[in-house]
Amino acid sequence: MIDNRLRKIKNHEIDNSLSELTDTEVLLNFQRAITSLYPHLIRIHAHAYESWDDIVIPLFYEMVYKTFSFKYGVEIMADEAHPFLFTLRCYKGIHHIQCLPKASSLQGILNNEKFGVSKENLEGKKLIFKSFGDSINCLTMGLDSEDAHAVHFNLVEVDVVCAQSNKCIDIDGCTTFFIHKDDVEYEFVAETFNQKLQK
Question: In which domain of life is the source organism classified (predicted)?
C-alpha cells in the first residue's frame, strides 16, 4: 500500500489471513472472476450497456476495495474510491490503484494500434488503474451478443497522470491506453478523501 493519508489511523477490522495476498494478486483475482463470469452474462444479455456497469462496478468495489479494507485496516467507502471504468480529473484525495511497470519500457495499445512506452515517456508521470478489457470492445457503450464471445480481459486500461499534481496528462497525445495485465504490479493508494478535488 502507498499511504498518502493525512491521518494515519486504523479504522477498519483487519483479517490477518489477507496479509499473504499482494495487491497485484487481489487485482488479478478480480480479473479472473470477470473472465469466468462474462460468458454467463452473454447468455442473459447482461454483457454490455448499463447491465454490465451495474454488475461490474459494485463487484470491483466488493472484491478489490473491500479486500484492501480488511487487509490494511483502512475504511474505504464506495464514494471515496475511484470506481472501475471511470476516468477522473484528479486522483489526489480519492483512493485508487497505481500500476507500476515491471520493466523500463512496455507496449501500449490504443484503438488496436501498438506503440512503445519508454522510461523517458513515464518520467514525472504515473499510471492509474482504470479497468480490465481488450482495447477493442467498449462494453459500457454496448456490444452485440454475437461479438461478445471475442471479448477478453487480458489488458488493463490505465490513465496517465502527473506524478506531482495527480491530474490527467498525456504521453504523445494519449491520456489513457491499454497495456498487458502482466506487465505491471498493482498497488493500492490510500488517500484522505477530498471532495473539492473531485469536482
Answer: Bacteria
